[in-house]
Amino acid sequence: MNDETATHSLSATTEAKISAAYNGAPAAKALLSPIHTTQIEVRGDVQAGVWREAIEWPAVDWYAITVPIDTAYQGFHRYGLKVCGQSMNKVFPEGSVVVVINFGDLGRLPKTGDFVVAVQRCSKTDQYEATVKAVQIRDDGTVILWPQSWDPAFQTPVVLPPQNGGDSAGTPDVMIQALVVGSYQPNPKASFS
């Protein structure tokens, strides 16, 4: 008998075990439950490095990606931003898309451990600049925006003074605009170092 025509049969015991594993076991059914998805629009990019002018792309340049529906954020408007730069490459390599929800929509403030999009008013041009970082909030209210990078050039955090509700002369107007709730990496690259 050659390999192309060989047939194998399972014993009744083995067949019963396979049937029980795939048909009757709760764990097997959980593995087979569908993942519900939706499409979101990628509307612009965000710098993972230094502050960079925050520009939403023209609507004709937006594109859609399919992402899983996260039941924790069901019903909230989500959108995508393409990551540019190396300051978050441990978590969001350059070219990744971060899926975000504005904090104004969420009705909550940032918490330590959140990944966020922060926006500041540029003192020179009066335009807005944005960056993506990890947030830490100290007991005294000081907010620290941390890079998450392998690159030694991107290890310095941005320290924001405690917010007391008023503006101080000469202090950039910084706000944490959006919570990163997911990410998508369209073209992962192999690394050999």
UniProtKB/TrEMBL annotation:
<dbReference type="Pfam" id="PF00717">
    <property type="entry name" value="Peptidase_S24"/>
</dbReference>
<dbReference type="InterPro" id="IPR039418">
    <property type="entry name" value="LexA-like"/>
</dbReference>
<dbReference type="InterPro" id="IPR036286">
    <property type="entry name" value="LexA/Signal_pep-like_sf"/>
</dbReference>
<feature type="domain" description="Peptidase S24/S26A/S26B/S26C">
    <location>
        <begin position="44"/>
        <end position="147"/>
    </location>
</feature>
<protein>
    <submittedName>
        <fullName>S24 family peptidase</fullName>
    </submittedName>
</protein>
<dbReference type="InterPro" id="IPR015927">
    <property type="entry name" value="Peptidase_S24_S26A/B/C"/>
</dbReference>
